[in-house]
Write a structure and sequence with these properties.
This protein has 11 helices and 9 strands. The protein is an alpha/beta fold and 269 residues long. Strand 4, helix 5 and strand 5 form a beta-alpha-beta unit. The protein is globular, with a radius of gyration of 20 Å. A 6-stranded mixed beta sheet has the order 5-4-6-7-8-9, sandwiched between helices. A 3-stranded parallel beta sheet has the order 1-2-3, covered by helices on one side.
């Protein structure tokens, strides 16, 4: 986004929610930005259904472009994202490729109603269902310390072979848990595979340490650049061309390839 803004001579400001995925806070921030005279809003909606009418209403006042996550609407919003369903399928294939053929896959989720996460779940479970693996959803509490406790229980359970997290913050916590229990796992000759999505600095570090086995991720640089490009087009002429964001799986063995290094560590000129 910063690179696109520089190339297109656009001023941008990044606004992060104080409470993660807070619907009410996101509504208030949009209202504030419209009042302050912004020319357009690029947003990753915190909820698939609850924000639909709000964004449809705000769109009458200001150009709005959705990125990464969509909303339930019949209106023709500009939307920039990778194929999240396909991304979920790719991660499932990575889990299977790593020798998981008859295991129970534990999928960690926080119950968020975000379209991108739902699509990843669907792609993953549809593909896993084609194998002889089974899967189980574990709904997690909101508090991070409680999430840590719950994941710790799962890691200590001898039946747990694979954990999957499609939300980066949950993958980070699961990675911390596995790292903290690593010596115990080695002592008991156990391996708990950990897979997920996201490319935060902590996730990359945990993958370098072989705590996280693999991630599936979209090309984040392209997502940001094309989202900003779509926003400028929406403001200037209301026309946005279709954009395709690629996704890939990156594991502890191929993360240092030239192609994957560019995805994990994009350089902004």
């Amino acid at each position: 986004m910063e690179q696109a803004a520089s190339d297109m001579n656009v001023n941008i400001s990044f606004i992060t929610l104080l409470e993660e995925n807070s619907i009410e806070e996101q509504k208030e921030l949009i209202q504030r930005e419209i009042f302050n005279g912004t020319d357009g809003i690029l947003i990753s909606p915190a909820d698939y259904t609850s924000l639909s009418k709000t964004l449809e209403s705000f769109r009458k006042e200001i150009p709005i472009v959705l990125f990464e996550s969509n909303i339930e609407t019949k209106e023709n919003f500009a939307y920039v994202s990778c194929d999240n369903y396909e991304l979920g399928k790719k991660l499932a294939n990575e889990v299977i490729r790593n020798g998981n053929t008859r295991n129970k896959i534990i999928i960690l989720r926080s119950g968020l109603n975000i379209s991108s996460e739902k699509e990843k779940y669907e792609g993953f479970t549809d593909e896993i269902s084609l194998s002889k693996n089974t899967y189980e959803f574990i709904d997690l509490p909101k508090d991070e310390s409680e999430i840590y406790k719950k994941v710790s229980e799962l890691v200590k359970n001898m039946d747990t072979k694979v954990l999957v997290a499609f939300e980066p913050n949950i993958l980070e916590i699961a990675g911390k848990v596995k790292k903290d229990h690593y010596s115990e796992l080695v002592k008991n000759n156990r391996e708990v595979g950990l897979y997920g999505t996201g490319s935060t600095s902590l996730i990359i570090s945990l993958m370098e340490e072989k705590i996280i086995n693999a991630i599936a991720m979209q090309n984040e640089f392209n997502l940001g650049y094309l989202s900003m490009e779509a926003m400028v087009s929406e403001i200037e002429n209301g026309k946005v061309k279709d954009s395709k964001i690629t996704s890939t799986t990156i594991n502890v063995y191929n993360m240092y390839s030239e192609e994957n290094q560019k995805i994990l560590f994009p350089i902004i000129r």
